[in-house]
Amino acid sequence: MDSSPCFAPNTRDDGEEEPFKVICIARYMTKLVLFVLPSTTMRWSMVEPPTSPSLERMSCFDCVRCCFYWTQPYGWSDHLMVLDTCTLRFSTVDLLTGYHLELSYLPDQSFGHRHANAVVMGREGALEMFSLVGQHGSFALYHTSLKNSSQQWKLEKIIQLPEQYHSICTMRAAEGFLFIQGAPEGIHIGNVDCYSMEVRTYEITKVCTKMENTFNPRRALPYFSFPPLFSELTI
Question: How large is the average pLDDT for residues 203-229?
Fold first, then answer.
């Protein structure tokens, strides 16, 4: 069994204390199960999705408007699996429609578990995604959106990424930012550069450099949307 505990995102902006939930996502060999601990009862309950997902294709999730979206760690799947953390109900979103069909056929030269797709909070209620594609030694993010209850993904913009890296992966999206990691060519363990990109403006900023295994990059864990009880102390 592989388990990943996390907090359900805080839905209030006024800073007031409110009940929160701890969600533990447990992946067994044949099924996915959620264990939920509400602060109001402090008792665990269990929730199962209505259909069994393809567990070997699931990566970490992105959180958008209190929903968790799972994408494949590499390649494309037919749909996104979605969990509403307020109602604890599962649903799916069609993925291979519109421009995504063209994107899935591109000769991608990236390799490894690069976490290719990231779901982000879009403009005016749109669901948006950034997909990483590597071709001819360079990398680009393809920004697509699903607007106005449309079932077709539309291309918004292609963003070229810094060219000095042998490999690049997207790590996680949160609060209007996408986090990117670039590794130089050469040794497998070395200094990698971490960037943030503001989704609204596409502005890319270098955040830090750290030691990392470039063949097994870890997901970023940005510190956002925790209940006030677990937020940093302020004066």
Answer: 63
